[in-house]
Amino acid sequence: MLQNNFAGGLLENYANCSSLERLRVSNNSLSGRIPDGIWSLSLLKLIDLAMNQFKGPVTSNIGEAKSLAQLFVSNNRFSSELPEEISNVSSLVEMELMYNQFSSGIMVRIGELKNLNNLHLEGNLFPAGPRNLLVHVFL
Hints:
Blueprint: E1 7-8, E2 22-24, E3 29-32, H1 36-39, E4 46-48, E5 53-56, E6 70-72, E7 77-80, E8 94-96, E9 101-102, E10 118-120, H2 130-133
Parallel strand pairs: 1-3, 2-4, 3-5, 4-6, 5-7, 6-8, 7-9, 8-10
């Protein structure tokens, strides 16, 4: 469902797709909040929500997404603090979080993501200075 100019939001029913491995809806005109259950789908390897108009937080149940390797949510209006539980997703290799409204610095346990090799955070509302932003990224 890439680059189709789809509008509206993601239906709650997507959170019931327990065999879903890839969710790619980037480069559309989708908006609203992501249903909580989507963040925790255990077989999901890829979440690509980039370049839409989604808002709200990435919820703490993302820590249950044990297969998630790639998380692309750039160019949206996601906000709030990133949940500490994201550090439980040890399979994460790539996270592109840029150009949203994330704030309050990144969670202190991001250094536990030993497989993470691509992290983009630019264009958010993190406090100024590397001490607040990247203190634990390279642990």
